[in-house]
Amino acid sequence: MNRPRGEVRVFADAEELSRAAAREFVHLSQHAVAARGRFTVALAGGSTPRRVYELLAEPEHREAVDWGRVEFFWGDERAVAAEHPDSNYGMAAAALLFKLALPPERIHRIQADRPDCDAVALEYQLEIARALGVPADGPPPPLDLILLGMGADGHTASLFPHTEALREPHRWVVPNHAEKPRADRVTLTFPIINVARAIRVVVAGAEKALTLVAVLEGPSDPERLPSQRLSPDVVWLVDRPAARGLAGGRDA
Ligand code: 6PG
Of 24, 49, 140, 197, which one is least surrounded by beta carbons within 10 A? Predict the structure, then answer.
């Protein structure tokens, strides 16, 4: 169903949602490789995408992706070491990356465990520019897919309510601070998120239902609900418990 704040696809449960997201990844990767010879993707952190990554490592999906042509980035990262249980890189590595024989130069981890998160953000912007072959001081380049989640407070990536990072007009990557555990973060910004060729947000669980209604159908309040700043081209992949409050939240 197309809405002013994106298309919403509802799935029976978190497993069906994860399968749909894995299929989207495969489809978008095949299209990008056919069109441009590679697939540039920014992975989401948090817990919801873990099952998506696990499914991508299973033969049905694993054999359908040309992994040697995939450039992996992250939408955000906590200020922890790669081995830390809260690391978004570490979650994706355990669920997917370590199961694939990938060239390490194509895995672009945000090294947010280094002391100066602003320097890390500046260096990550350089790394994205280098990998995509564009000037680092120019407009943000389009990644083929940016996979995101949404917090119960309406944040996405590490773009939290009422934080300066929401209003960043030029930088592609900035440091930010969360009012929750693992407070120091490095995150992509809306300028680079909203030029992606595909933006997919995976949202599961009844605890997200009220926020999803507010984000998708409530009055505009992008300071309080950062996910409202996402491009209207976004596709929301949600399970039925999270979609419960949506008008016409029909199954995909
Ligand atoms: C992070 C994520 C964050 C996440 C949401 C949803 O680093 O925490 O990037 O934006 O996607 O908080 O998290 P869950 O999937 O765990 O609900």
Answer: 197
173 pairs with which residues across the strands? 188
What CA–CA distances, in Å, run from 176 to 18, 84, 154? 28, 19, 16
List residues near ligand 1 (CB under 6 A).
44-48, 75-76, 78, 88, 149-151, 155-158
Q: Which atom of ligand 1 is nearest to the CA of 205?
A: 17
Q: Which domain holds residue 205?
A: 7-251
Closest residue to atom 8 of ligand 1, CA basis: 46
Q: Please list the ranges in the chain whose pLDDT falls under 50.
A: none
Is residue 2, in this structure, part of any structural domain at all? no
Output the CA 209–ligand 1 centroid distance in Å: 15
Q: For the chain, how many structural domains are there in total?
A: 1
pTM, 2 dp: 0.96
Chain segment 22-69, per-residue pLDDT in tens:
999 999 999 999 999 999 999 999 999 999 999 999 999 999 999 999
In a domain, 77, yes or no: yes
